[in-house]
Write a structure and sequence with these properties.
The chain is mainly β. It has helices spanning 207-211, 280-284; strands at residues 2-3, 8-11, 21-23, 31-35, 42-45, 70-74, 90-95, 104-109, 122-126, 135-136, 144-148, 159-164, 173-178, 192-196, 205-206, 216-220, 231-236, 245-249, 264-269, 278-279, 292-297. It folds into two domains: 1-72, no CATH class; 75-297, Integrin alpha, N-terminal (Methylamine Dehydrogenase, Chain H), CATH 2.130.10.130. Strands 7-8-9-11-15 form a five-stranded mixed sheet. A five-stranded mixed sheet has the order 12-13-14-16-20. Keywords: Cell projection, Cilium, Flagellum, Glycoprotein, Repeat, Signal. Pfam families: FG-GAP. One of its GO terms (cellular component) is integrin complex.
């Protein structure tokens, strides 16, 4: 149970064990904290009154987190890191990406700069660990790896999630949204989602390589300003083939002040071992039924979320 409100709250296990807890305070200057509890209540208090998140001098500092209960992830305080809507933009469980038996985290910062240009975006995989020493994403070393966007203004990392084991190699994979990417001249901001396969090394991943079929595969949007990848999620094994599937959303919130007029669509993409790209156009047109299916809606829908077997037929259902 969560007791209290405002800037202070208590996590109360009510005399039973609870799982790991991830806490993200959006108003902090680009920092995410992971807190653990399974034996007693924890109280975390932050004072963020009068602070800003637009890069001004009032940007707040991260609160202390006892090393006995977890660790702090510091994403830095440069202006392109805490650009509005990007600081700590996306934080998610990553599953066990490196296969060491401890679950990992992924943090997406969609407005970070790379040599491709502004708002290329980066995502940081932070390996799970048993000590409480803080983590700096700009100096991960052996503690994780960086995933770098493919193009300027693509906003890679706007949405991030564990994907489950999509390719069946025993390592959990990731899905990352880059909703402002585009593939065909004139069809701007059609969006891309990337499935990045799990790995045990800490070398950086370029989504440019994944787009071309190395280390994962791209899922390509096709409608002008449809923002495919604005929301992404693991789906479990929807088609019961032994490989985990993913869900990719279009038009989940319009990205910024723009809301597209196109039909709202959610795509279930089946897991696969190959790294060939997936065309959402082909799935929507019914010419790639072996790759997934589309759910159409005339109305703006909530972002996608994880799924489960709701009717007990052995197949994972979608939300």
């Amino acid at each position: 149970a969560i007791l209290g409100e405002g800037n202070s709250f208590t996590l109360d296990p009510d005399s039973y064990a609870i799982g790991d807890i991830r806490v993200w305070q959006k108003d902090l200057a680009g920092n995410a904290s992971e807190i653990y509890s399974n034996a007693h209540a924890i109280t975390i208090t932050t004072d963020i009154s009068g602070t800003t998140t637009d890069g001004g001098s009032g940007a707040s500092t991260v609160p202390e987190v006892s090393s006995a209960h977890g660790f702090t992830i510091n994403t830095g305080t440069s202006w392109n890191t805490i650009y509005p809507r990007s600081q700590g933009q996306a934080v998610s469980s990553a599953g066990d990406v490196n296969g060491d038996g401890i679950d990992d985290l992924i943090v997406g910062l969609a407005s970070q700069y790379y040599k491709w240009g502004w708002k290329t975006g980066k995502s940081y995989v932070v390996f799970g660990k048993v000590d409480g020493e803080g983590v700096d994403v700009n100096n991960l070393g052996s503690g994780g790896f960086t995933i770098i966007g493919r193009a300027g203004n693509s906003l890679s990392g706007y949405a991030v999630s564990s994907a489950g084991d999509v390719n069946g190699d025993g390592l959990d994979d990731l899905i990352i949204g880059a909703p402002k990417e585009w593939h065909t001249w004139g069809i701007k901001r059609s969006g891309t989602a990337y499935v990045v396969f799990g790995k045990t090394d800490t070398s950086s991943v370029l989504l440019k390589d994944v787009y071309n079929g190395t280390g994962g595969f791209a899922i390509k949007g096709y409608i002008y300003e449809s923002y495919a990848g604005a929301s992404v999620s693991a789906a479990g094994d929807i088609n019961n083939d032994g490989l985990d599937d993913v869900i990719v959303d279009t038009n989940s919130d319009g990205i910024g002040d723009i809301i597209a007029s196109a039909e709202y669509q959610k795509f279930a993409i089946f897991g696969k071992k190959s790294t060939s790209s997936v065309s959402l156009s082909a799935i929507a047109n019914g010419t790639a039924d072996d790759q997934g299916f589309v759910i159409n809606s005339d109305n703006l829908c909530p972002p996608v979320t994880s799924s489960a077997d709701f009717n007990g037929d052995g197949f994972i259902d979608s939300i």
